[in-house]
Amino acid sequence: MLGHLKCLLDCGNHPREDYKEIILLSVAYLGGRVPTSFRAPGAYHMARWMAKAIYAVKIMLFHDQLEMSRRELAGIRRVAFFVTMVYAKYWNEAMIPSYAAKNDLDFITDVKRICDDGVASVAERAMRRHLWYLSENLIGLAIFDDHISPEQKAEMVEGMKRPSTTKNPRRPESKTPINLNRPLSAFCSVRSMQVLKSLLGGQQPTFLEPSPET
Fold it and tell me: How far apart are CA 100 and CA 195, in angstroms?
C-alpha cells in the first residue's frame, strides 16, 4: 500500500488539495517520507468525512504529544488504519467512472480482509448506499478500465448480449450478502450497451466487435 500511495503522490494529479493531503499524511503514517510542514486544521463539518479522516491521521502522527485515554487512542488508531490502508487509495480514484465498478468490489474486499470486523461492517454498510456503477445501466463504463484484463472485458461484451431484467436493473441487493467473487460480466445485459451508445451520440459501439482492447 505504501508503494501505491507514493506513486499517487508523485503523479501530481490531485483534483483538490485535501486529496493530496490525505495521501501525503498516509505515506507519512505508513513509514514513508514525513512532510516538512503540516497544514493548520481547517473547517470541520459533520458532512465532511474527509476532514475527519485527515484529522485522525494527524492525531496519530502526533499522539505522543497529546493526552488521550486508552479508549480514545484505540478508536483514533482504528480510524487512521482504515484511512491509510484502504480509504486513501480508493478515494483518490473515486472521480474516475470507468474504475468505479471494480473499485467498489475491491474496496469491500480490502476492508473485510484488512480491517477489524467492526470497521468492516460499518464501511460495507456505508458503501452499499453507493453501488450505482454495479448495475446493468452503468457497468458498461468498466470497459474503459485499464485495470481489467482483456479476458474479463471479453466476458463483459458477451454479457451485454443477455436479456435485461424485467424489473429493477441487475445490481447488488441492499440487504443481501455481496458475492465478492462475482465477475463484472454477471452485472451485464443489453442495457449495459446504452451508456456506451450515449457516449457515441446514439451510435452502436462497434469498437467492441473485434476486441474490447483494440
Answer: 14
Terminal alpha carbon distance of the chain: 31
pLDDT score at 77:
92
Residue 102 contacts by C-beta under 8 Å, 6 or more apart in sequence?
142, 145, 147, 148, 184
User: Does residue 83 contact residue 103 with C-beta atoms inside 8 Å?
Assistant: no
* Model pTM score: 0.77
Task: Quick: pLDDT tens for 146-176.
Answer: 889 999 999 988 888 888 776 655 566 656 6
The amino acid sitting at 68 is M
Domain ranges of the chain: 2-95, 97-214
Q: Please give the Cα distance from 17 to 71 (Å, whole number).
A: 31
